[in-house]
Design a protein that fits this description.
- By secondary structure, this protein is an alpha+beta fold.
- It has two helices and three strands, in the order E-H-E-H-E.
- It has a single domain, classed as Ribosomal protein L30/L7 (Ribosomal Protein L30, Chain: A, 2-Layer Sandwich), CATH 3.30.1390.
Length: 64
């Protein structure tokens, strides 16, 4: 049997984390977002969804 392909999710940094709490800055870095408008692709799982939920005011989720 072929293994099911994991769903992907793209995340874009649309607002700077400067001036926000250290844990929110760390979450943005942990997502792999370093610069404004940078886009990264992750597997769509609960851990990544929780990180995105923590910084919803800084990121935008794109169609993968």
């Amino acid at each position: 049997m072929a293994k099911a392909k994991a769903k992907k999710i793209k995340v874009q940094l649309v607002k700077s984390p400067i001036g926000y709490a250290k844990d929110q800055k760390a979450t943005v870095v942990a997502l792999g977002l370093g610069r404004m408008n940078s886009i990264v692709e992750h597997d769509d799982n609960e851990c990544i969804r929780g990180m995105i939920r923590k910084v919803t005011h800084l990121v935008k989720v794109l169609d993968a």
